[in-house]
Design brief:
The protein has 9 helices and 11 strands. It is an alpha+beta fold and 228 residues long. It has a domain of 148 residues: 2-Layer Sandwich (Beta-Lactamase). A hairpin with a 2-residue loop joins strand 4 and strand 5.
């Protein structure tokens, strides 16, 4: 899959992965911060806001100071009015986001469609996904495990991926992540509908759901190594 051009698409999955990595998505976290991030993801996945006390505990267990952990998290977290973490690198308790993700009886949202394809591997859990097309409103439904996409409805669903400028200053804040990437990444029920939406958008690539899952493994390979 990764070595050939995709029909109706300009870049291969491997080329898209290289573009995102070259543009700083994700940053190079390092071993301690990677282990800390996995702990934080799995704490948030329990279904409630992550308090400063919970963050401090995860930091201690990861061998980093609370101050360093807090500074590290500021560029990739969503907060409530009490400064508790309610969103982390895609996984969110904020019901304003459009993409719905369910783990057992726990309900979440994600910042973009693609988040739903790599989060299961980070969390070590099977998830159910529902996301409405920005064109027709038709709902795309998925079941995703840490290892594969189990089901896709409609079968021909695709996901848009925003490529980034490697010469830019990376994604230094959560607002930059949202504006430059998340707000352009959606599920569509068909390639035809996605192609219509993407017409004239030079930074958009369209991939199948399976290819989007593969893309997540490629882009986040280093971080996912700490999730096993």
């Amino acid at each position: 899959m990764t070595s050939t051009k995709l029909e109706n698409n300009r870049m291969s999955v491997a080329e898209i992965a290289k573009n995102l990595n070259d543009a700083g998505l994700p940053p190079e976290f390092g071993e301690d911060n990677s282990r800390f991030l996995i702990k934080m993801f799995r704490t948030l996945a329990q279904g409630g806001p992550v308090t400063q006390e919970m963050t401090a505990k995860a930091a201690r267990e990861s061998g980093i100071s609370y101050e360093a952990a807090d500074q590290f998290l500021r560029q990739m977290t969503e907060r409530d009015s009490n400064d508790n973490i309610i969103g982390l690198m895609g996984l969110s308790l904020n019901q304003d986001w459009a993409h719905r993700l369910t783990i057992g009886d726990r309900s979440f949202r994600t910042w973009c469609a693609w988040d739903t394809l790599f989060l299961p591997a980070i969390l070590g859990e099977e998830v159910m996904v529902e996301s409405d097309s920005p064109v027709s409103g038709e709902t795309v439904r998925l079941t995703v495990t840490p290892n594969e996409v189990l089901s896709v409805s409609p079968e021909g669903a695709v996901v848009s991926i925003a490529t980034l400028d490697p010469e830019a200053d990376g994604l230094p804040s959560v607002e930059a992540i949202w504006g430059n990437f998340c707000h352009q990444v959606f599920f569509f029920p068909s390639m035809e509908e996605a192609s219509e939406w993407a017409r004239g958008k030079s930074n958009i690539e369209l991939v199948s759901v399976a290819e989007g899952f593969e893309l997540g493994k490629l882009v986040l390979s280093e971080l996912l190594g700490y999730a096993e």
